[in-house]
Structure formats: structure tokens, C-alpha cells
Amino acid sequence: MKRLFLAIALDEDLARRLARVAPGFEEECGPLAVHDEEDLHLTLSFLGEVDEGDVPGVIRSAAEEFRGLFAPELQLTGALEMLPLGSMQPRALTAVVSEVVDGAERLHALRNRAQQVALSRRCAAYRGDRRREFRPHVTLARLTEAPPQPHGELDSGVVRTWTGAEVALYESIADRADGGRRYRQLESWGLAVAPH
Questions:
Q1: What is the number of domains present in the chain?
Q2: What Cα–Cα distance (Å) separates residue 83 from each residue in 25, 99, 178?
Q3: Does any domain span residue 160?
Q4: Is the pTM here over 0.85, yes or no?
């Protein structure tokens, strides 16, 4: 079995900048298990545990769903959140992502297509993922214990607009020494970039 998800890949420069952010927030968040830059991504949909023999079918379905879609214009405002919001024991420090408002709603179209892959392949995680509110973000670190209270608004100082030009299928692998996971890209699909 492979634990899979679909996500927007980050370009190397943005991933490098975001990877430097989390260690500066241990005072507000408590001890952190920081993700490596190659593990940073914006999750669209969890597929859950998939039989190894079914992976080629997932890849074919995703290629069909993402063919011809336009890449979203995305932005970081510097805002950070601990998720789940409002929890006394949040699990992750995240960089908030939003779509540049142009009326196209390409990010939500990608989310819908990613969920369609999960549905068409009868992935077990589909029902739970469908009920969860979609809060676009990049997870920077896992919280290893409850954060000190209270904490104010968190700002990374990383402000950037970028084009989410690639969707990828990732495998989540539990082999980090700190109990966390690393992510291996299995396949990716380029998205069309709209002329400005």
C-alpha cells in the first residue's frame, strides 16, 4: 500500500525561502519538526492508502483530469496559521495561501479535479477529504507538543505571488527520525499558463 495525495508543487526558490521560516517560531509554537524544502507543497486532495497495483490507474486518471487546465496565480501574504484553527492542540504550522482574485477560481477547479481522481479510483480518503474545509496552505512544520498560550498573529515576512504551474502525485513515507513523514513525487503534470 502507498499513502498518496495530489498537490501543487512549489518552485525551488519559494520552497527554499519557506523552509527557512519555521525555526524562527518555536517561541510561539513550541518545539517543531520542520519540513525539508523538497517536502513543501500545497495539498489539493488526499487519496489515502492505495494498493501498489492501482497506482498506474491513479496516474492515468490524474493525467486526464488535469489535461488542459490553467495554472492558478497564488499568493503568500506572510500570514501563518497553526492548524486546525482554534484547537488547543494544533498539529501544524502553515503558510496561508490564497488565489489572486481574477474571477477564474483555478485553484478550486484543481481541487475539484483532484477530488474527482479520488472518487473515480474509489480512494478511501475521499469522503473525509470532501467534508473538510479547503484552506489552501503550505505546511512548514509539525508541532510536537501543545503551543504556549496565548499567541498573537504570526507573520513569516515571506510575501510572494507565483504561478502554481505543476500538479504532482506524492507518496507520503513515514521514515523520519523525528516520527514525521517525507514526501516522494511519483508523477507530475504541467498546467497551462494563461497569457497576461
A1: 1
A2: 14, 19, 19
A3: yes
A4: yes
d(CA 105, CA 45): 17
What residue numbers bound the domain in which 94 lies?
Answer: 2-190
B/e letters for 95-121, b = 16+ CB within 10 Å, e = fewer, are: bbbebeeeeeebbeebbebbbbbbebb
The DSSP code sequence of 43-107 is EEEEEEEE-GGGHHHHHHHHHHHHTTPBPPEEEEEEEEEEESTT-SS--EEEEEEEE--SS--HH
Instruction: Report d(CA 38, CA 40) in Å as an integer.
Output: 6
Mean per-residue pLDDT, 18-38: 93
Say if residue 138's pLDDT is above 90: yes
CA nearest 141: which of 152, 126, 156? Answer: 156
Query: 195 lies in a domain?
Result: no
CATH code: domain of residue 61: 3.90.1140.10
Provide the pLDDT for residue 172: 92
Residues in contact with 166: Cβ distance below 8 Å, sequence separation at least 6, in sequence order: 8, 9, 71, 188, 189, 190, 191
- What distance in Å separates the CA atoms of residue 14 and residue 161, rounded to the nearest whole number? 10
Q: Quick check: bond before 148 cis, omega within 30?
A: no
| Rounded Cα–Cα distance for residues 127 and 112 (Å) | 13
The three grid cell numbers given for residue 74, joined into one nine-digit string? 497564488
